[in-house]
UniProtKB/TrEMBL annotation:
Protein name in UniProt: Protein FecR C-terminal domain-containing protein
Protein FecR C-terminal domain span: 39-105
Biological source species: Hymenobacter arizonensis
Keyword Zinc attributed: no
Taxon lineage: Bacteria, Pseudomonadati, Bacteroidota, Cytophagia, Cytophagales
One Pfam family it belongs to: FecR_C
Compositionally biased tracts (Low complexity): 114-136, 188-209
Signal peptide: 1-24
Record keyword Iron present: no
Source taxon at top rank: Bacteria
Swiss-Prot/TrEMBL keywords: Signal
Ranges where the record places region Disordered: 112-169, 188-211
Length: 563
């Protein structure tokens, strides 16, 4: 019953939009003669229909509940008519199609064993004339044999129907897809369980296309109540408007709502909402919301939200959010047939933070923090980076990467009896660390320091490693608590690590030379000058005392253990 209602509505829509039968016939005929090049391997039928609709502009409508759209399709054609492709795709699936205007309507077909009927063709100019074309009766079921390399296989026995204006062509019996260049192979295997990765359902009714439209608010415009079912090439909404899609340019004073796809430019003073896909530029004063994937540029004054990854650029004054990618069986089959495809780079830039639940390839930059799954590129934040893994660098005062570089060191040097470093980074290629030191054992005056540094692993072998670290320590002296004056020890370390217990182990003995430069404005009452106890008994290569600021330099050592 639902199929009949869907078919009746489609026929009424086509008849209302068709000014002349001859024009409708020509347009319908051209639809089925469109050249199609596709490759599928065990792809769900629903994904195949989506691909035909998206790549070749074929308007296909069907009922998601009445038809089994999980049936697998294996097909490979090049430059073949749509009619041939549909016959092959729908073979042995108990599904037929009718062409109403320029719209393909799918419906269920009950298997029948009746004799094939002749093909009757009625011309609109001469309704009484009929041309009967005999159709070969179904032959007895042959013994299964392997088809030849270039021999097309039988596409199936599902009846197919095509209607255009007042012309109708009905065929029953076996349908053979004759392909000149490539072989159409349809494997009648059991449908795989694709519940978890099922494709997003297509709407039952296809959209119409209009060159231009103007509206005040919602249906108050040139498209009227059908605004939500119309794809506009040029759309101007005084306050706000809705549409099925945009294939060109759309602008609104307040908001735009598109239930399917935007190809081109979409501008709004307040917000843009797109249901499925963006291919172009989307700009809004407040926010952009995307219900699927995107390619191009999303720019918003406040925030961008996308439920699926967005390639290229995403910029916002406050934050950007990207959801996780949805893997479809059809996408996997197509990617395997087409070979490896390089992923597109993307840029996320926000004044406050970025969140990308899935994969980031490119740059993720924010004023406060970044959150991502897997990063292939650069994470840059003013405070914090969080990720599962990083193939590149994470640059921030704090970097928490679950599968990153985490090390703790306990050291001794010529300046400090004991020191400690906590190193965190996305990879060994770049990490940051917090440093602390203390020296107050025995009769010497107590002093302690806190600092921050960055480093990189220059060499990594199973037994040997080489690290270069730079650290700045604020030195507090003479048990006076915190020293308010500038008293900064800047140190460069070259540390050689050795794994004594296990090759490739985390525990390593480290040692190496250091170069220190102390910049101080602390007044030393005992010496009567601007100085520090750190330079006592040192062989200085740099000694520049001053009335307000003194600079000293020396060479030392650093040794300890790394965990």
């Amino acid at each position: 019953m639902r199929n009949r209602i869907c078919l009746a509505l489609a026929m009424l829509s086509a008849l209302a939009g068709s000014p002349l039968p001859a024009q409708a016939q020509s347009r319908s005929s051209s639809v089925l003669e469109r050249k199609v090049t596709v490759t599928f391997s065990q792809a769900p039928l629903e994904s195949v229909l989506q691909t035909l609709r998206r790549q070749y502009g074929v308007r296909i409508s069907y009922s998601n509940t009445a038809l089994n759209l999980r049936q697998p399709v294996t097909l490979s054609v090049q430059s073949q008519p749509l009619r041939t492709v549909l016959n092959a795709v729908l073979a042995d699936k108990n599904i037929g199609y009718e062409l109403v205007g320029d719209q393909v309507v799918l419906h269920t077909v009950r298997p029948t064993k009746t004799k094939p009927a002749p093909v009757s063709t009625t011309s609109p100019s001469s309704p009484a004339s009929k041309v009967a074309v005999p159709v070969k009766a179904p032959a007895p079921k042959p013994t299964p044999t392997k088809p030849a390399a270039n021999q097309p296989t039988e596409a199936g026995r599902s009846p197919a129907t095509a209607k255009s204006g007042t012309q109708s062509v009905k065929t029953t019996g076996p349908v053979v897809a004759a392909v000149a260049q490539d072989t159409i192979a349809v494997k009648p295997t059991a449908a795989p369980d694709t519940t978890a990765n099922a494709a997003e359902p297509e709407p039952a009714s296809s959209a119409r296309t209009r060159q231009a439209q103007v509206s005040f608010l919602g249906p108050l415009g040139s498209n009227g109540l059908r605004s939500g079912q119309t794809v506009n090439k040029l759309s101007v909404n005084v306050l706000g408007g809705t549409s099925a899609g945009v294939d060109g340019f759309e602008a609104a004073g307040l908001f735009n709502i598109t239930r399917d796809t935007v190809k081109g430019v979409q501008l709004a003073g307040l917000a843009n909402v797109v249901g499925r896909h963006l291919d172009g530029f989307q700009g809004a004063g407040l926010l952009n919301v995307l219900g699927g994937t995107g390619t191009g540029w999303q720019a918003a004054g406040l925030l961008n939200v996308a439920t699926r990854p967005v390639s290229s650029v995403q910029t916002a004054g406050l934050f950007n959010y990207n959801g996780v990618a949805k893997k479809l069986a059809a996408d996997s089959a197509q990617s395997q047939a087409a070979g490896p495809v390089s992923a597109r780079k993307s840029v996320q830039a926000a004044g406050l933070f970025n969140a990308s639940i899935g994969e980031v390839r490119g740059v993720q930059a924010a004023g406060l923090f970044n959150v991502a799954g897997t990063v292939h590129g650069v994470q840059l934040a003013g405070l914090l980076n969080i990720a599962d893994s990083v193939d590149g660098v994470s640059i921030a005062p704090l970097n928490f990467v679950r599968r990153g570089y985490h090390r703790f060191e306990v050291l001794n040097s010529e300046s400090w009896a004991v020191g400690a470093n906590l190193k965190l980074g996305g990879s060994a290629g770049f990490y940051t660390f917090f440093a602390g030191a203390y020296d107050g054992f025995g009769s010497n005056g107590q002093r302690w320091a806190l600092g921050y540094g960055a480093g990189t692993e220059l060499l990594a072998r199973r037994r040997i490693s080489l690290n270069l670290d730079a650290v700045a320590l604020h030195v507090n002296e003479e048990s006076r608590g915190w020293t308010d004056e500038l008293n900064l020890q800047n140190q460069l370390r070259l540390l050689v690590g050795f794994a004594p217990f296990k090759a490739g182990g985390r525990v390593r003995l480290v040692a190496g030379p250091t170069v220190s430069v102390l910049v101080t404005q602390r007044y030393d009452a005992e010496r009567g000058q601007v100085s520090s106890s750190l330079v006592q008994n040192r062989s200085l290569w740099l000694d520049e005392p001053g009335a307000r600021t003194s600079v000293f330099g020396w060479i030392g050592y650093c040794a300890g253990i790394r965990f």
